[in-house]
Amino acid sequence: MNISIIGSGYVGLVTGVCLAELGNKVICADSDAKKIKGLKKNIVPIYEPGLEELIASNVKNKRLKFTSSIKEAVLKSEVIFIAVGTPSLENGEADLTGIENVAQNIAKYMDGYRLIVEKSTVPVETCFWIKKTIAANLKNKYKFDVVSNPEFLKEGSAINDFNYPDRIIVGLESIKAREMITSIYKPLNKPILITNIKSAELIKHASNAFLATKISFINAVSQLCDKVGADVTEVARGMGLDNRIGKYFLHAGLGYGGSCFPKDLDAFINIADKLGVDFKLLKAVRQTNIQQLEFFLKKVKNSLWMVKSKTIGVLGLSFKPNTDDLRNAPAIYLIRALEKEGAKIKAYDPKAMAKAKPLLKNVVFCKDAYSACRGVDCLIIATEWNEFKELDFVKVKKLLRRPLIIDGRNIYDPAALQALGFTYLGVGKNG
Ligand code: UDX
């Protein structure tokens, strides 16, 4: 099929290149001409494992191209995916001006039937408004369908998530739309759950909000573990063995960050409020996430006594491993808070340093993890990159000024590090 993706961010690029890999002819469009110029030269604006290679091979096979012309994208495709950003407004509401703009442009340029697939994370009822906007702006009475097809890609494993999804959700209301969308996803050979449009829209927000709830729940338990001397990893393992609970998303740490959970939770709470539903549970989830960082910060302060003039090494800056994404990254919050208290920071991240430099002007960025350990009073693990799990701790101990490790992601075995002479503090273990 001829498919266009409007919006070439994480979701748009990954979806576009994966659909091209499935054999479709795909045009990825974006209004950011500089980004498109770069993509044409295979300069990929984000780090996502495997993405650059896949883009290069699909461009070479002529299945993928880029344009900054929405007109070209609309004219040359029968299926149009909307994958533009929906950032948070100050009140937490999702900003849908990008979506409205795309809908107006689709109406302006379409010259026959189009299937419009809404993939951006949006509040319930957005597809209804897309439909209304297109209908109101259409010059000729061309037919079209709008379907809701929420994405569940995780940064760092997005290509794999596209190819091996747990489920594909499509909200639709016509047989033609059903036939077209199922034929697009058929090669993946995965269950497609067809629902009505509003249910599909709600599934996305409800899923992310539920996952965030799991994380805040275990983080609150981790604070309790610290008080009584229990180990949150053991508690989570014990809970997770109950199939009704499940073992995933029960890793205590620095709280959730990234571009999705904080924004989606705000938007979900906001739309619920607007519809007259006071979703108190989610407000508490959000509050717990903020508290978890404060709780960790207190742990750092308690173990250093005075933060002023101390040098602190921070390993990991991105909000999670295998990405260079710093949006709502706990490490950035921690570093800023510690700098405010007068600490000097040395930091290292395998992929996110280029993006971090403009945000953290006073931080000394190091060439590797060991350099970030040299001469510091305390080493903080802020992101669980695999390479941090395999450090040579005999070497690390020689480099640190004081053998204190505060592990915000619980990646180390406390006993092993204590045996080497470290003071080790995790989250929800060892007080
Ligand atoms: C998330 C959803 O998982 C995905 O389905 C959706 O499409 C977009 O939002 P993403 O933000 O890429 O994906 O990352 P994810 O792996 O879900 O992690 C989100 C945050 O939760 C990270 O900050 C991570 O560190 C944190 N997290 C995750 C925990 O603190 N504990 C856990 O057990 C799991």
What would you say this structure looks like, in words?
With 431 residues, this protein is α/β, with parallel strands linked by helices. It folds into two domains: 2-195, NAD(P)-binding Rossmann-like Domain (Rossmann fold), CATH 3.40.50; 209-425, NAD(P)-binding Rossmann-like Domain (Rossmann fold, 3-Layer(aba) Sandwich), CATH 3.40.50. It contains 18 helices and 14 strands. The chain has helices spanning 10-21, 33-40, 51-60, 70-75, 97-109, 126-137, 158-163, 175-185, 197-228, 232-240, 261-274, 280-304, 330-340, 353-356, 369-373, 386-389, 393-399, 414-419, and strands at residues 2-6, 25-29, 64-67, 79-82, 114-118, 144-148, 168-171, 192-195, 311-315, 344-348, 364-365, 378-381, 404-407, 423-425. The strands form three sheets. A six-stranded parallel sheet has the order 3-2-1-4-5-6, sandwiched between helices. Strands 11-10-9-12-13-14 form a six-stranded parallel sheet. Strands 7-8 form a two-stranded parallel sheet. α14 links the parallel β10 and β11. α11 (261-274) packs antiparallel against α12 (280-304). The protein is globular. The model has no long low-confidence stretch (mean pLDDT 96). The structure holds uridine-5'-diphosphate-xylopyranose (UDX).
